[in-house]
What does this fold into?
Amino acid sequence: MNETKIVKMLYGKDGMILRVPGDSTVLVGKDASAVAEPIEAVADALKNPIDSPSLTELLDKNRPGTVAITISDITRPVPNKVFLPPMLEVLNAAGVADSQIVIIIGTGMHRPSTPAEHEILVGGEIQSRIEVIDHTADNPDTLVAVSKDPPVSINRRFAEADFRIVTGYIEPHFMAGFSGGRKGVCPALVDLATIERFHGYETLADPQADAGVLEGNPCHRIALRVARTVGVDFLFNVAITRSREIAGIYCGELNAAHLEGCKDVAEWASTDVAEPFDLVITNGGGYPLDATFYQTVKGMCGALPALGSESTLLIVAGCSEGLGDDAYAELVLSYGGDWRRFLSDIADGETIRFCQWDLQMRCRVLERIGLEKLRFVSDGIEREIQKRISVTPILGDGDARARAQRAIDDFAGANPDARIAVIPDGPYTMLRRNS
It folds into this structure.
């Protein structure tokens, strides 16, 4: 390899430095600048929300006895510690005492948070003042029905609160179009059956269930319907920079504020792709997103616009917590590399396997390029396990960086005229085919 360029990939907590041929295309969005004074920006946004009275006005009108605030779980790098203190100040100033507030971690069907993760999510000072709980989608005692057709149950503490605030952040999402907004309720706070319906086979078989797509997206439609059924009094979403600082604040009415944020994120995160590449190198988004293989699939699917039938995809991911929860691990290991049998088994829609949606989305990549060309590098999953999860693992000597570099060098050496692309920010970059 003669002329080269150095690219830092998101990988675990520290990143991964890779060397690629000098003529490789680096696919990144425009990113955005961090707001200069985030605390002041939060306070100003709460006073001047989108399509809604200010938070103070809403509280003065409703005089709530209880307030529920949802936050994302540890898989999302949301700057809660920045915006929660000024939000709590507004609540306190409106006569809502700390004892009347509960912060609910919207785990969806993810595992419960640990005490250490509570500290990471909200900080010790807020923990000492405010009750912080996890949503438990599998515990009927913590749920209450809000709809019969279709049947939907919601976190009881959220549904029964006098005033409901949903927080989170907006990024491209590989099946729901964008994260944030209504997803802070569904799937974050709903029962398992609703989560399964949200991720059902027919839902994800719809080509509109894709990154950057809201119009006609069945995941978006389901989530928005559920959120409106239970009722959200105030939305607080942010967009973040590559360094995970606040770039934009979108608060106010549930859908209007979310759509405003999605427009900005689409502009910042998108980059155009004219035709497929021979080799695409991406990642699982770095920590905390790439802590599990389950979440790493987002990086694979995010690369689809750059892939043709002859393309090779190389993805690096830390996977410090392994495959994911036990149900997901059991599912992927039970099929081994036989992903076609998996698709056949779930296509009848009669039985929904827990976490099947993640493997179904990965099958979009497998259908495009095949198993042999989906190449995976990680130090977080045992090598024998890597051979059984419908990827082609890059094994051999050296750590993940060394093995990934060797794979790139070997490919470039064998294919000197190959068109190579690198996606340093993985799933946080939204690729758009412009031809």
User: Anything to note?
Assistant: Residues 375 and 392 are 5 Å apart (CA to CA). The radius of gyration is 22 Å. The chain has two domains: 4-30+274-433, 38-268. The chain is about 35% helix and 25% strand.
